[in-house]
Amino acid sequence: MRINETHRYHPKNMFGVLPAAEHDKILHTKNLYDADPRKEKINAGIGVINDDKGDLWIPKAVRSARRRIVDKYISGLLTHNYMVPSGKLEWGGNPDFIRGTANLVFGEYAHELLASNRIAATGTVGGSGAVSTFLEALKERVKSGKPVPAIIYGSKHYPNHEWMIDTRGFKSKTFAQIKKDGSYNLEETLKAVNEAKPGSVLFLQGGAHNPTGINPETEEQWRTIAKTAKKNKIDVFFDIPYAGLNKGLDEDTKPLRIFMDENVSVAVAVSYSKNAGLYGERVGALLVPAANANEAKRVGGLLNRIMRNTVSSPSAFGEAIIAEIFNDPILFARWKKDLSSVSRMLHKRRELLAQSLPENIGPLIRKGAGIFSTIPISEKAVNFLRKEYAIYVLGNGRINIGGISTDQIPRFALALNAALRKYPIIT
């Protein structure tokens, strides 16, 4: 089609004068990695798990469940319709998926909570969708006259959480997540909780921590935090995106139940991106245990309203895959076996890498769990790794252990040592 001046479109800027948008550092790092033509490149930036062949790790149980679900779509047993709130509590999402997730995270508490209809829940667009839905619900709490003095979390923290908290106008209070020796900083955690006003919300991560890899190390530490939160009337929000990648599904979700033991008010976001390999499917859930069935229905109604106003409905395909695993004991056992295998692989990578790094860096890797660790490194060193070695890590020092295959570890360690020597951190 021939274009002349009369066909040129000259709209006015409907958003006014905007500042230049900053790149999302994690996604931008992936774009840089994807554009790098060097075959030896290593992506230790974006949070995915690769097997030792360099392929995206997807559990065998998930592959089997996915084939079954595709067959059900083809045969007409499943449709491509919207998922709408259903059941007594009008859960937003696949009921089997939500029920299975409740059993997973609430453990011994799940049966009574489910039987008494005391869980408000919705499927969400990944774990980030669960976190953002929770924060939107907190805004409604503020409107109802119950303030949120602050949201408390460890630093360093997942940048997306920080952005979601800040853009919704919540005040935040941080504490040092780890000590210099790589251990969890319990003292700073308790200090922050003791200083917080009643009604504040403590953000915690279960199973593993993004970006440090360091969480409370014992049940005693978790219980001490729980008792302190209870004493100070602090509510607790758990983000659990890595269940099964450390000590197993039961152990990695146990910290949440320790807070329930102490009768602390909790809510929990769950993601199936990392532990099920369902990244693009965006499978998540938000669950809130309530005092009674009526309260659960009111909270559930709020969650449904937020979902309707944002994404309308959650991911049917991804939820169906996870529901299939929950509904089949053989598949569920297979999934647990898959997770045990990948956990051993991640711990092995950590140990191999830690052995090859300086004494002040190795413990930060060795003591961590899950796929992430954070090391002290300068922006210049990060750029040096990228330019000279085709190695991609984040500017805040976060390293994705899941993205480095076992065979790549010697080269990764060699490059990292070179970068740290050339651009040492002055402390």
Overall description:
There is one protein chain. With 427 residues, this protein is of the alpha/beta class. It folds into two domains: 23-58 and 336-422, Alpha-Beta Complex (Aspartate Aminotransferase, domain 1); 82-327, 3-Layer(aba) Sandwich (Aspartate Aminotransferase, domain 2). It is built from 15 helices and eleven strands. It has helices spanning 25-35, 60-75, 95-106, 110-115, 126-143, 159-167, 186-195, 219-231, 249-261, 293-310, 316-327, 329-355, 362-366, 379-389, 409-422; strands spanning 42-43, 119-125, 151-155, 172-176, 201-205, 235-240, 266-271, 283-289, 372-374, 391-392, 398-400. The strands form three sheets. The protein has a seven-stranded mixed sheet with strand order 2-8-7-6-5-3-4. It has a two-stranded parallel sheet with strand order 1-10. Strands 9-11 form a two-stranded antiparallel ribbon. The longest helix has 27 residues, at 329-355.
The geometry reads as globular
Q: Name the CATH superfamily classification of the largest domain.
A: Type I PLP-dependent aspartate aminotransferase-like (Major domain)
Mean pLDDT: 91
Question: Into how many domains do the coordinates divide?
Answer: 2
CATH topology of the largest domain: Aspartate Aminotransferase, domain 2
Q: Which CATH class of the largest domain?
A: Alpha Beta
What CATH architecture of the largest domain do you see?
3-Layer(aba) Sandwich
| Total helical elements | 15
Q: Order of strands across the widest beta sheet? A: 2-8-7-6-5-3-4
Distance from N terminus to C terminus (CA atoms, Å) equals 63 Å
Radius of gyration based on Cα positions:
22 Å
